[in-house]
Amino acid sequence: MSGMFGGTGTTANTFVFLLWATLRHPEVVTKLKEELVSVVPDAGVVPDYQICAYPTIVAMLPRVAVRDSTVAGVPIPKGTIVGTQNYTIHRWEMAFPDPERFTPDRWFDERTSTERKEAFVPFSVGARKCIGINLAQMELSKLVAAFFLRFDATIDPSMRPEDMRMFDNFSAGPVGRKLLIRLKESHDPKQIISEVRLPYPDGLAEEDSKQGVSSGQAGPDL
């Protein structure tokens, strides 16, 4: 059950945010399609960037300090509850310069590669990292390739940035619970409007928003 949740539901949320971010940047879509057609593995930087910008597990995973210690000059007494939060870590400017800007090419910047590898922790690290990591990465790679090779897509004009604000219910998703996109087959002029709806019970996102769970973040350029 943990594997099914860790590698499927969160992947669906990630793909929704990936479409939202990528489809608003036609130049990125064009380059991605070119790379996919030429079978260049660099296409994988878009899923990686998306997981970084919109980590679907944004809740802090608490741990208890087993001994007195000091981290970055901050004393942490034994018994203190500590944890990390992906959304903030993935906006650390030393690792991700201009973090709110949608620039997948940053993953080729060798100047920040060391810091970026250390700070990129959407699946956590160590012995207790997400057991769905390989399933999720495989799914995202295949989803990106299948979707962008088959379809030409645009965001429906009715979508607003505030609809895509992240709410944190341990596994994050957009407040609006859906994404409307206009689709057509790459070689077919007929266009349809498709609704990508997230698998949340009715009212969950609205209730989370009322309780102040929403992170209020859509990113000015994401």
Automatic annotation (TrEMBL):
<dbReference type="GO" id="GO:0020037">
    <property type="term" value="F:heme binding"/>
</dbReference>
<dbReference type="InterPro" id="IPR017972">
    <property type="entry name" value="Cyt_P450_CS"/>
</dbReference>
<keyword id="KW-0349">Heme</keyword>
<feature type="compositionally biased region" description="Polar residues">
    <location>
        <begin position="211"/>
        <end position="222"/>
    </location>
</feature>
<keyword id="KW-0503">Monooxygenase</keyword>
<dbReference type="Pfam" id="PF00067">
    <property type="entry name" value="p450"/>
</dbReference>
<dbReference type="GO" id="GO:0016705">
    <property type="term" value="F:oxidoreductase activity, acting on paired donors, with incorporation or reduction of molecular oxygen"/>
</dbReference>
<dbReference type="InterPro" id="IPR001128">
    <property type="entry name" value="Cyt_P450"/>
</dbReference>
<dbReference type="InterPro" id="IPR050121">
    <property type="entry name" value="Cytochrome_P450_monoxygenase"/>
</dbReference>
<keyword id="KW-0408">Iron</keyword>
<comment type="similarity">
    <text>Belongs to the cytochrome P450 family.</text>
</comment>
<dbReference type="GO" id="GO:0005506">
    <property type="term" value="F:iron ion binding"/>
</dbReference>
<protein>
    <submittedName>
        <fullName>Benzoate 4-monooxygenase</fullName>
    </submittedName>
</protein>
<dbReference type="GO" id="GO:0004497">
    <property type="term" value="F:monooxygenase activity"/>
</dbReference>
<feature type="region of interest" description="Disordered">
    <location>
        <begin position="203"/>
        <end position="222"/>
    </location>
</feature>
<feature type="signal peptide">
    <location>
        <begin position="1"/>
        <end position="26"/>
    </location>
</feature>
<keyword id="KW-0732">Signal</keyword>
<keyword id="KW-0479">Metal-binding</keyword>
<dbReference type="InterPro" id="IPR036396">
    <property type="entry name" value="Cyt_P450_sf"/>
</dbReference>
<dbReference type="InterPro" id="IPR002397">
    <property type="entry name" value="Cyt_P450_B"/>
</dbReference>
<keyword id="KW-0560">Oxidoreductase</keyword>
